[in-house]
Write a structure and sequence with these properties.
With 94 residues, the chain is mostly helical. The chain contains five helices and no strands. The protein is flat. It starts with a helix and ends in a 10-residue tail after the last helix.
Length: 94
Protein backbone atom coordinates (compact mmCIF):
# COMPACT_ATOMS: atom_id res chain seq x y z
CA UNK A 1 0.00 0.00 0.00
CA UNK A 2 2.83 2.37 0.88
CA UNK A 3 4.58 1.81 -2.43
CA UNK A 4 1.37 2.43 -4.36
CA UNK A 5 0.72 5.63 -2.42
CA UNK A 6 4.23 6.93 -3.04
CA UNK A 7 3.98 6.03 -6.71
CA UNK A 8 0.81 8.11 -6.95
CA UNK A 9 2.51 11.07 -5.26
CA UNK A 10 5.53 10.75 -7.58
CA UNK A 11 3.21 10.72 -10.59
CA UNK A 12 1.58 13.91 -9.34
CA UNK A 13 4.99 15.60 -9.09
CA UNK A 14 4.78 16.60 -5.43
CA UNK A 15 8.01 16.07 -3.50
CA UNK A 16 9.05 13.38 -5.93
CA UNK A 17 12.64 13.07 -4.71
CA UNK A 18 11.62 12.52 -1.09
CA UNK A 19 9.15 9.85 -2.15
CA UNK A 20 11.82 7.99 -4.10
CA UNK A 21 13.99 8.10 -0.98
CA UNK A 22 11.13 6.59 1.01
CA UNK A 23 10.35 3.90 -1.55
CA UNK A 24 13.88 2.49 -1.79
CA UNK A 25 14.02 1.18 1.81
CA UNK A 26 10.44 -0.08 1.49
CA UNK A 27 11.39 -2.11 -1.60
CA UNK A 28 14.41 -3.52 0.24
CA UNK A 29 12.07 -4.80 2.98
CA UNK A 30 10.03 -6.90 0.54
CA UNK A 31 10.48 -10.66 0.66
CA UNK A 32 13.02 -12.18 -1.72
CA UNK A 33 10.45 -14.67 -3.00
CA UNK A 34 8.25 -11.76 -4.10
CA UNK A 35 11.08 -10.05 -5.98
CA UNK A 36 12.61 -13.23 -7.46
CA UNK A 37 10.48 -13.24 -10.65
CA UNK A 38 11.81 -9.78 -11.48
CA UNK A 39 15.41 -10.94 -11.90
CA UNK A 40 16.97 -13.54 -14.18
CA UNK A 41 17.83 -17.04 -12.91
CA UNK A 42 21.52 -16.32 -13.51
CA UNK A 43 21.35 -13.26 -11.26
CA UNK A 44 19.53 -15.28 -8.59
CA UNK A 45 22.23 -17.96 -8.65
CA UNK A 46 24.95 -15.34 -8.37
CA UNK A 47 23.22 -13.73 -5.39
CA UNK A 48 22.83 -17.09 -3.62
CA UNK A 49 26.52 -17.82 -4.20
CA UNK A 50 27.51 -14.39 -2.88
CA UNK A 51 25.31 -14.82 0.18
CA UNK A 52 26.73 -18.24 1.07
CA UNK A 53 30.40 -17.34 0.71
CA UNK A 54 31.68 -14.89 3.26
CA UNK A 55 34.97 -13.10 3.38
CA UNK A 56 36.37 -11.07 6.25
CA UNK A 57 36.18 -7.30 5.97
CA UNK A 58 39.36 -5.70 4.74
CA UNK A 59 41.26 -3.20 6.84
CA UNK A 60 40.45 -0.47 4.30
CA UNK A 61 36.73 -1.13 4.60
CA UNK A 62 36.91 -1.04 8.39
CA UNK A 63 38.77 2.28 8.29
CA UNK A 64 36.31 3.81 5.82
CA UNK A 65 33.36 2.61 7.92
CA UNK A 66 34.87 4.04 11.10
CA UNK A 67 35.62 7.36 9.36
CA UNK A 68 32.06 7.54 8.05
CA UNK A 69 30.70 6.86 11.55
CA UNK A 70 32.89 9.58 13.09
CA UNK A 71 31.91 12.10 10.39
CA UNK A 72 28.19 11.39 10.87
CA UNK A 73 28.56 11.67 14.65
CA UNK A 74 30.37 15.01 14.32
CA UNK A 75 27.77 16.38 11.91
CA UNK A 76 24.93 15.26 14.17
CA UNK A 77 26.13 17.15 17.26
CA UNK A 78 24.64 20.56 16.29
CA UNK A 79 21.38 18.92 15.26
CA UNK A 80 21.04 17.09 18.57
CA UNK A 81 21.94 20.25 20.50
CA UNK A 82 19.23 22.13 18.61
CA UNK A 83 16.66 19.40 19.30
CA UNK A 84 17.45 19.41 23.01
CA UNK A 85 17.55 23.20 23.42
CA UNK A 86 14.60 25.18 24.78
CA UNK A 87 14.71 27.58 21.82
CA UNK A 88 14.82 25.40 18.73
CA UNK A 89 15.53 27.17 15.45
CA UNK A 90 13.54 24.78 13.29
CA UNK A 91 10.31 26.82 13.09
CA UNK A 92 11.67 30.17 14.15
CA UNK A 93 9.62 32.13 11.63
CA UNK A 94 6.25 30.95 13.01
Amino acid sequence: IQLAFHSFIIASGNLSFLNWLTMVPAIMCLDDALLAPLVSPRTRQASVLAATTSSPLSVTRKIVSAAFFVAMAQLSIPVIQNLCSKRQRMNGSF
